[in-house]
Amino acid sequence: GFVQNDITLVPERWHLSLGTKIEHNDYTGWEFQPGGRLAWTPNQRHTVWGAIARAVRTPSRADTDLRFAQEPVMPGVVPVIYGNRQFQSENLLAFEVGHRWQLTPQLTTDLALFYNIYDDVRSAEVKGYSFPELRVVEENRLHGETYGGELVVRWQPVTWCRLEAQYSLLQVDFKVDAISNDSNREENAPHHQGSVRVALDLPRGWEFNSGLRVVERLAKQETPAYVALDARLAWRPSERFEVALVGQNLLDGEHPEFSSLFTMQRTQVERSFYGKVTWRY
Predict the structure, then answer these.
(1) How much is the mean pLDDT over the chain?
(2) String of DSSP letters for the chain
């Protein structure tokens, strides 16, 4: 279930939202995920807000019943990952603050900062070796924090053109318990990402949208940085009918973005095209 109450503390100035999500699962029983958000609007150009929330990732079949043999790391050594029936939910306590500023009717900025605290995060613990199997068991021995922010600038110089620039920063600091033998995973997420998007409303029902994004390399996974370009051209002769052609990852034939959880094999994201017809009735 989910319950939420939106409260106006001071009309057009202070607003408070309180709520919680309540779930039950067969692995960890009842889970409560409460959250609250307070917003202050001193005038029509500024909004300042803050939020705090708790979230969990409940166990899955992979966490409790997995048996996965990896590629041999050396002759006679095959890591085998096992699930754990005692695996607990991963916990997150999230803090956020933000500011929206409308500098002009055409120019708006959004700044959001966050600080997250993680507990009982999944770790891979080596439990012994019996030729040729190196036994690795999933446990909850990782904990740490992430912090950073995101800045978005939106500009509409004319009615038929919209521009958006976005930059995000992510810092990760994870540690293991004293009795853990797992390795640090902080390089599994890029520290810097950015994007630029443009949307054009053209004559005779035509639309054009394009986005360029830049993502920093993942050093631990040996995944290089990449720049990707997507584009969409659409024709809408009426409010109910639309035909669109979309191209994704147009700058190169293929590039890696992330490695598998259990192997260092990287899936190549390829250039792609597709058409779409939409009829609303």
Answers:
(1) 93
(2) -EEEEEEEEETTTEEEEEEEEEEEETTTEEEEEEEEEEEEEEETTEEEEEEEEEEEE---HHHHH-EEE---SBTTBEEEEE--TT---EEEEEEEEEEEEEEETTEEEEEEEEEEEEEEEEEEEEEEEETTEEEEEEEEEEEEEEEEEEEEEEEEEETTEEEEEEEEEEEEEEEE-TT--PPP-GGGS-SEEEEEEEEEE-GGGEEEEEEEEEE--BTTTTBPPEEEEEEEEEE-SSSSEEEEEEEESTTSSEEEEEE-SSS--EEEEEPEEEEEEEE--
